[in-house]
Design goal:
161 residues, mainly beta, Nucleoside Triphosphate Pyrophosphohydrolase, 3 helices
Length: 161
């Protein structure tokens, strides 16, 4: 059996992932990465491991990518990502459903020993929410969503990037 890479359209599974929305004093915690599209930002998160709850997944990913320990709160929103619709030249074999959870810092200082940066990750930063519009944050829809009325903003964002 041959190995199926991320660009292989025959890959037929949907990855389950979670992301943490860590907001402190109007600033969002993001990871900075460098890839094919240049610099881009993501909220900390990643794929769920077998035997792990969504909440455990978020807490682990935030800790590994940023060094911050968090208490995971409520579900904030979710999205689908179908790579073939956004980057057809190189991401056709990747599909992911992401759930974003509100997270609260347990300690204001990160633990550098806990950090296991993702491939292509170049750093971590706190970005004021108004500055997210026009930034390299993905999904881009998140930048406006964070500034919408919490009573009326959608929970499901659809297939956005």
């Amino acid at each position: 059996m041959r190995s199926r890479g991320r660009g292989d359209a025959e890959m037929a599974r949907v990855r389950a992932a979670t992301r943490g929305l860590v907001l402190v004093e109007g600033r969002l915690l993001v990871t900075m990465l460098h890839g094919r599209t240049g610099e881009f930002w993501l909220t900390p998160g990643g794929g769920q491991h077998f035997g792990e709850t969504k909440e455990e997944n978020v807490a682990r990913e935030v800790l590994e990518e940023t060094g911050y320990r968090v208490r995971v709160g409520d579900l904030a929103c979710g999205r689908d990502y179908l790579g073939a619709r956004h980057f057809p030249d190189w991401d056709t074999g990747f599909q992911q459903t992401e759930l974003f959870f509100w997270c609260h810092l347990l300690d204001p200082d990160p633990d550098p020993a806990a950090v296991e940066h993702d491939t292509h990750q170049t750093g971590v930063q706190w970005v004021p929410v108004p500055e997210l519009i026009g930034s390299p944050l993905y999904p881009r829809r998140l930048a406006t969503w964070l500034q919408e009325d919490p009573e009326t903003r959608p929970t499901w964002l659809g297939d956005v990037n």
